[in-house]
């Protein structure tokens, strides 16, 4: 009787409420993630099918120069994007955080609005601006800076511009919220105790906003590592990152185990960063939203 | 003397900060403005500015491929929003309120779609669907979208749940309301702002998604972003610029209206009180 009562009072509602999300996560996150790890240890058949025999082949292929180069190039591009987003974004976040709350929330809104525009169309705009007969080349030619148009299209530089402009808000938002939380009295105390503004920044502001900075690193570095739309749109198939290679393995090339192994590589890098993050901050506090 | 020096420095710093921020906003808005300007370009493909026209805004509606993919995107986004917000709302309440075995596991799982690159989850879902023979199409795209929308929705709503709602719920139950009545009359109104922003977030994430839709579309028709990506090789035509210009205007106008209505309601409430 008592047991039945407890079931009705506690277990049933818990099951009804937490059940759907748990089931969804297990079916469509846990299982696929485990399965992709499993597939990465299989090998590719002659016709692009999966041969279910344990092998390290895919991981060995990753060390081949062609793939190895792409991996290094992607990691470097993601790292450069992250560093630039932090350097550009921190002063910007600081400026907004020092505004009165009303103004600051409007300024944050102003950052979000462009990102409700289709992301591919925003990338396409850079292409329109920088193409051979586009406004920038015309301007440079008309003003006599250059004689022949510069080829910006499908270069690493343009891809980098696309990456930075796509990722900047994800760097700014977490840093903004951690700077905004920074108590003013701490900065005043530091100044009263005779610290220079530089010392205050290095000893107080920077360490206290570090969780925000690290959130930014995660939110910029990891997506840039897996992105393929920017390289597709602005690199025109000439610039390839890990994301493009994974996509191709599940498309025309049909080498699932290799694509799976590359995915596992991304999972491992992500896990590593999250592990470091959780050493000094709780994952629940990550300013994702 | 000294004070004025400090004031001068402060003013100068403020100016530098403002100029810097304006520069960054300019960079963020340039792509949007360029997109809008080139929707009025009198040219079959956008190579350079060739004079003003509004023809693309009318021709757009005769381009059935574009309109079809837009509807496809909207239907998926609406369904994904409804499913994600429903599961996210009750899930957020359930995960916050009840202790059970595996709660921590589910909580951790929720962060995977948020953090791991989308391509990884997309191909993982793809191979699972292929393995069990689930046909690719609208259903698979919808599942894919919900898989990343649910965590965002849930985390957003969970942030709005405060512990002090429980006593109200208990009071409601004690007074004889059943669980469903309590949920609708007490719990839901208290977390409504969170639910609304979760819905907005889910919709925008779904309608702009490329990676999931691209990997899980199969060979059949697909969403607008997938269509745009496939047009990229031959060049994106100005009618797409026109369409995305309309879309962003609709979003911004509805946001402004929403805000205005909220403010109005607040005012009437204040005058009543």
Compile the SSE list and pairings:
The complex is a heterodimer of chains A (289) and B (273).
Chain A: H1 2-40, E1 43-44, E2 50-51, H2 57-62, H3 65-97, H4 101-112, H5 119-130, H6 135-142, H7 156-181, H8 184-192, H9 197-208, H10 210-226, H11 229-235, H12 242-249, H13 256-280
Chain B: H1 2-37, H2 55-59, H3 64-97, H4 103-115, H5 118-132, H6 138-158, H7 165-174, H8 179-207, H9 211-216, H10 224-231, H11 238-272
Helix pairs in contact in B: 3-6, 3-8, 4-6, 6-8, 7-8
Walkthrough of the structure:
- Chain A: It is a multi-pass membrane protein.
- Chain A: One of its GO terms (cellular component) is plasma membrane.
- Chain A: This is Spermidine/putrescine transport system permease protein PotB.
- Chain A: It is found in: Cell membrane.
- Chain A: Belongs to the binding-protein-dependent transport system permease family. CysTW subfamily.
- The complex is a heterodimer of chains A (289) and B (273).
- With 289 residues, chain A is an all-alpha fold.
- Chain A has a single domain, classed as MetI-like (MetI-like fold, Orthogonal Bundle), CATH 1.10.3720.
- Chain A is 74% helix and 1% strand.
- Chain A contains 13 helices and two strands, in the order αββαααααααααααα.
- Chain A has helices at 2-40, 57-62, 65-97, 101-112, 119-130, 135-142, 156-181, 184-192, 197-208, 210-226, 229-235, 242-249, 256-280; strands spanning 43-44, 50-51.
- A two-stranded antiparallel sheet of chain A has the order 1-2.
- In chain A, a hairpin with a 5-residue loop joins β1 and β2.
- In chain A, α7 packs antiparallel against α10 and α7 (156-181) crosses α11 (229-235).
- The model of chain A has no long low-confidence stretch (mean pLDDT 85).
- Chain B has 273 residues and is mainly α.
- Chain B has two domains: 2-40; 64-266, MetI-like (MetI-like fold).
- Chain B has helices spanning 2-37, 55-59, 64-97, 103-115, 118-132, 138-158, 165-174, 179-207, 211-216, 224-231, 238-272.
- In chain B, α3 (64-97) crosses α6.
- The radius of gyration of chain B is 24 Å and the shape is globular.
- Chain B starts with a helix and ends with a helix.
- The model of chain B has no long low-confidence stretch (mean pLDDT 86).
- At the A-B interface, α1, α3, α4, α5 and α7 of A face α1, α3, α4, α5 and α6 of B.
């Amino acid at each position: 009787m008592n047991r039945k009562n407890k079931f009705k009072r506690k277990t049933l509602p818990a099951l009804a409420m937490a059940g759907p999300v748990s089931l969804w996560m297990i079916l469509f996150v846990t299982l696929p993630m485990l399965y992709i790890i499993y597939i990465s240890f299989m090998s590719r058949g002659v016709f692009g099918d999966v041969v279910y025999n344990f092998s390290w082949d895919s991981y060995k292929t990753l060390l081949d120069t062609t793939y190895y180069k792409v991996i290094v190039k992607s990691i470097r591009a993601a790292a450069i994007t992250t560093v630039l987003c932090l350097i550009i974004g921190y002063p910007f976040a600081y400026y907004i955080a020092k505004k009165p709350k009303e103004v600051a929330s409007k300024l944050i809104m102003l950052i979000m609005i462009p990102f409700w525009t289709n992301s591919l169309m925003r990338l396409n705009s850079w292409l329109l601006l920088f193409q051979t007969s586009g406004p920038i080349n015309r301007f440079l030619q008309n003003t006599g800076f250059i004689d022949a148009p510069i080829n910006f299209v499908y270069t690493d530089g343009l891809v980098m511009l696309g990456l930075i402009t796509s990722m900047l808000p994800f760097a700014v938002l977490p840093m903004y919220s951690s700077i905004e939380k920074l108590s003013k009295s701490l900065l005043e105390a530091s100044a009263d105790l005779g610290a220079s503004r530089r010392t205050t920044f290095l000893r107080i502001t920077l360490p206290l906003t570090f969780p925000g900075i690290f959130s930014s690193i995660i939110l910029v570095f990891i997506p840039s590592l897996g992105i393929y739309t920017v390289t597709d749109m602005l690199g025109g198939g000439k610039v390839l990152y890990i994301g493009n290679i994974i996509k191709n393995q599940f498309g025309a090339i049909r080498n699932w185990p290799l694509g799976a192994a590359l995915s596992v590589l991304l999972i491992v890098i992500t896990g590593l960063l999250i592990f470091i993050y959780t050493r000094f901050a709780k994952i629940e506090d990550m300013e994702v939203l | 003397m000294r004070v004025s020096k400090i004031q001068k420095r402060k003013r100068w710093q403020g100016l530098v900060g403002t100029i810097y921020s304006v520069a960054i906003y300019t960079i963020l808005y340039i792509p949007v403005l360029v997109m809008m300007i080139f929707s009025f370009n009198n040219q079959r493909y956008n190579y350079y500015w060739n004079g003003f026209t509004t023809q693309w805004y009318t021709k757009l509606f005769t381009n059935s491929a574009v309109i079809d993919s837009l509807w496809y995107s909207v239907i998926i986004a609406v369904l994904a929003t409804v499913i994600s917000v429903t599961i996210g709302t009750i899930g957020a309440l359930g995960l916050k309120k009840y202790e059970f075995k595996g709660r921590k596991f589910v909580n951790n799982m929720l962060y995977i779609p948020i953090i791991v690159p989308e391509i990884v989850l997309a191909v993982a879902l793809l191979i699972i669907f292929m393995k069990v023979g689930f046909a690719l199409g609208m259903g698979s795209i919808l599942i894919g979208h919900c898989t990343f929308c649910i965590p965002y929705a849930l985390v957003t709503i969970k942030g709005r749940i405060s512990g002090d709602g429980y006593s109200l719920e208990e009071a409601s139950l004690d007074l004889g309301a059943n669980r469903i009545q309590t949920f609708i009359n007490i719990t839901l109104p208290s977390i409504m702002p969170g639910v609304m922003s979760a819905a907005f977030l889910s919709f925008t994430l779904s309608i702009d998604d490329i990676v999931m839709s691209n990997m899980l579309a199969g060979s059949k028709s697909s969403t607008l972003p997938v269509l745009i990506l496939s047009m990229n090789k031959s060049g994106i035509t100005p009618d797409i610029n026109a369409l995305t210009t309309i879309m962003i205007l609709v979003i911004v106008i509805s946001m402004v209206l929403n805000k205005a209505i909220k403010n109005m309601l607040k005012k009437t409430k204040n005058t009543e009180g």
